[in-house]
Design brief:
The protein has helices at about 65-85, 95, 100-120, 125-130, 155-165, 180-190, 210, 235-240, 255-265, 280-295, 305-315, 365-385; strands at about 5-25, 30-40, 45-50, 85, 140, 145, 170-175, 195-200, 225, 245-250, 270, 295-300, 340, 350, 360-365. The chain is α/β, with parallel strands linked by helices. Helix 5 crosses helix 6. The structure holds 2-succinylbenzoate and magnesium ion.
Length: about 375
């Protein structure tokens, strides 16, 4: 599938959308999703959309909506516009010239590749399948749900029950010191056969190894990112002490990172989050390596809006993605998304990616305006406070 596009203009839409319920992790509580939608138009007459899933504050990532606006407006967009025509081979020098800022890069690359797929009349999943050289792809994507830190064990059990009733077959609990063995043991007791896992978002140190060992008899699918967000080596030391497989999220930014992790035995499983690795091109390179070296792979989430959700779902259709991805139904986070249609959970804890060309979702103009208004209102409130 060859393609060629000439980007004529790039529009950045900072947005805020309320969450249906607060989401708490080891680094904070979130009530809204702030994000930056990237719209590109091409000389060929197609529109592409991408999402920079950065928030108000640096937390999971050092990027924020404001760093995204700055890097895209002042560097990446001018670099892309000066480049003129792009095809599957790039050139990508304008992209690599900017170091870091993976979330911003993912937003722009997502817009480019979804425009390229749209121009071809193919879904983004088909373009990614072609780029990955994969003979086939999943028609539906196996997914699970991530549950934030709850006020009590009872609330945790109730939340798990609700999601199990909705049809989710894989549950991830966010954990932190003081909120780990007890909630996980309670959930395992009540749901003996559930695919259950834990995500610590870097809340522990290697000295906690004896404590984390207590999780070994709970038959967890994996423990995600227990140690430092920038650590790989100590994870390899922890992995050697645990039966439960480790999965890395925060620590893996590049192909080189995942090669180091594999070599050291720091993880058996990779959370491949296209945002964290600077976009779909890097994600494909890392995907390839994981498949070749026998690492299990799933696609991570970060409370994406519809654009980001559609992008991640397309990536999750690649055949080597062999564990449930953190891509839940739209209504798990949003009463109403900016994009239509919302994603719904189907039979077997699976979501069907859009079949239409490009991302296969469309932006609802009134909801986009409302989300942009909400962004500016919250931005003003935050300015007054500081
Ligand atoms: O660590 O996987 C993570 C959300 C935001 C940032 C980081 C993470 C998460 C989640 C939720 O775990 C995944 C999702 O449902 O989108
Ligand atoms: Mg994680």
């Amino acid at each position: 599938m060859t393609w060629q596009i000439t980007v004529t203009d790039i529009t950045l839409h900072p947005v805020v959308v309320p969450l249906v319920q607060a989401f708490e992790t080891s680094f904070g509580v979130q009530h809204h999703r702030a994000a930056l939608l990237v719209q590109i138009n091409t000389a060929e007459g197609v529109t592409g959309w991408g999402e920079v899933t950065a928030g108000w504050e640096p937390g999971y990532s050092y990027e924020t909506v404001y760093t995204g606006l700055h890097i895209l407006r002042d560097f990446l967009a001018p670099g892309l516009l000066a480049q003129g025509t792009l095809d599957a081979h790039g050139p990508w020098a304008w992209l690599h010239r900017v170091r870091g800022h993976p979330l911003a890069k993912h937003g722009l690359l997502g817009a480019i590749l979804s425009a390229a797929a749209a121009q071809h009349g193919e879904p983004l999943a088909a373009l990614l399948q072609h780029m990955a050289g994969a003979p086939k792809r999943h028609e539906t994507v196996s997914v699970g749900v991530s549950i934030g830190i709850q006020p009590s064990i009872e609330a945790t059990l109730a939340a798990v029950q609700d999601y199990v009733d909705e049809g989710y077959q894989r549950i991830k609990l966010k954990i932190k010191p003081g909120w780990d063995v007890a909630p996980l043991r309670a959930v395992r007791g009540a749901f003996p056969d559930l695919m259950l896992m834990a995500d610590a978002n870097s809340a522990y140190t290697l000295a906690d190894a004896p404590h984390l060992k207590k999780l070994d008899d709970l038959h967890l699918l994996m423990i995600e990112q227990p140690l430092g967000h920038d650590d790989i080596y100590q994870h390899s030391q922890l992995a050697a002490q645990l039966k439960t497989p480790l999965c890395l999220d925060e620590s893996l930014h590049s192909l080189s990172d995942v090669q180091v992790a594999a070599q050291l035995g720091a993880c058996r499983i990779v959370n491949l989050k296209p945002q964290r690795v600077g976009g779909l091109l890097n994600a494909l390179a890392m995907y390839h390596f994981c498949v070749m070296s026998g690492l299990d792979v799933w696609i991570g989430g970060m409370l994406e809006l519809g654009i980001g959700r559609a992008t991640s779902l397309a990536l999750a259709t690649l055949p080597g993605v062999n564990l449930p991805s953190d891509i839940s139904a739209t209504q798990r986070y949003y009463a109403q998304d900016i994009a239509d249609p919302p994603f719904e959970l189907g039979p077997g804890s699976r979501i069907t990616p859009p079949q239409g060309p490009g991302l296969g979702v469309s932006i609802h103009p009134d909801r986009l305006s409302e989300a942009e208004r909400a962004f500016h209102e919250m931005a003003q409130t935050r300015e007054k406070r500081s």
